[in-house]
Amino acid sequence: MNGIHDMGGMHGFGWVEPEPGEPVFHARWEARVFGISLLAGLRMGGNIDERRHGLERLDPVTYLRHGYYGRWLARLEENLEECGVLRPGELGARLRGGQTAAAPLPALPPPSRSARHPFLRSVERPPAFRVGDRVKTRNHQPAGHTRLAGYTRTRRGVVVRVHPACVFPDTNAHGRGEEPQPVYAVRFEGSELWGESAEPKSCVYFDCFEHYLELDREA
Amino acid sequence: MSGDQRESDPRDLALRVEALEALLQEKGFLDSTQVDAIVRHYEEDVGPLNGAKVVARAWTDPAYKTRLLADGTAAIAELGFGGPQGEYMVVLENTPTVHNVIVCTLCSCYPWPVLGLPPTWYKSPAYRSRIVREPRTVLREMGLELRPEVEVRVWDSSSEVRYFVLPERPAGTERLSEEELRQLVTRDAMIGVGAVRAGEASRG
Prior knowledge:
The structure holds two protein chains of two kinds.
Chain A (H helix, E strand, L loop, with lengths): L27 H17 L3 H9 L3 H6 L1 H16 L7 H6 L38 E4 L18 E11 L2 H4 L8 E9 H5 L7 E8 L3 E3 L4
Antiparallel strand pairs in A: 1-2, 1-5, 2-3, 3-4
Chain B lengths: L9 H17 L5 H14 L2 H13 L1 H9 L1 H7 L10 E5 L4 E6 L8 H4 L4 H4 L1 H6 L4 H7 L9 E6 L5 E5 L11 H7 L2 H5 L13
Parallel strand pairs in B: 1-4, 2-3
Helix pairs in contact in B: 3-4, 3-10, 4-5
């Protein structure tokens, strides 16, 4: 989806500000949101692609307002409500001092016992592209989840590495199956991505699922 | 929860999360001691020291370096590191003519088992938006001036492959032990926004 999360190449976000001696978490609430989110992911089922899409579906203000763990918190609350673990308004009532007992838990999916790798899959079909192939990214802009960033769409590059077949996020995030396929590290020259504003001797290596690519027949 | 109901005061966020955790505990959805254990793991057991061990081993053991560059996941597992966000690792070697740097423009993917959880700047819109477009400028602002003849390669972690950088071993460290070399390797050098310097012992 063309959302606020797709930041590569955007202007206007200011300076990168490193913080010397930065702690792992800046506040207790950040640490708790991190830990609760990992546990909740195990309890509620779902996959990493659905969870990433959960961040992308936040409205842009919520996405940006409280930083990384702020958006994790917003997603956690959304997920808990979607699964029925939290009733609508239940947390708000508690915050206003309500002493109502916590609503009971709904039935949750049994814990996944899959022994498979989290994302690597073996496929029969050989990879469609080889190292050195000149490729072009498709003008692929689904309304749902995708890992083809806006700045890499319809760009020409060269395959530099063929990774093993992986679960396809675009379908896996929406319950449409894993559609495993090879992933290619593709080299895009700076000038191809940024035109005249590109810096000299700079390039981006971007991992492209096979579905995102076609052979560049004009090369 | 919709955006307009969000609290704006950090103290409100703290109260909100406290209430949320209490509710989830009362429901029997989670056990707070499990949350404690996860937090402690990422605060104490996982961090850039793990990656520094990998780098120092690669600098002192050529056979290990060969294995590391051929199959990062397996070579990193030899030293006991692996797990979430490190299930398929590729190591990128910096050379006198090629400088690698990593980012995740779409979220904030990062190789947790070797570097720990990412610093705030790595997750910031400024870094995610700018490093792909103007890497030399961003690196210069962060204190790393690349010579004009050096090619900069920005690796955008858009799949589940997790990259990290094998920095160049600095000159003048030939007599240092593997243990001493570890102390020189910084997190920033393994992201690719810094270089390892002889005599540096901070872990920025």
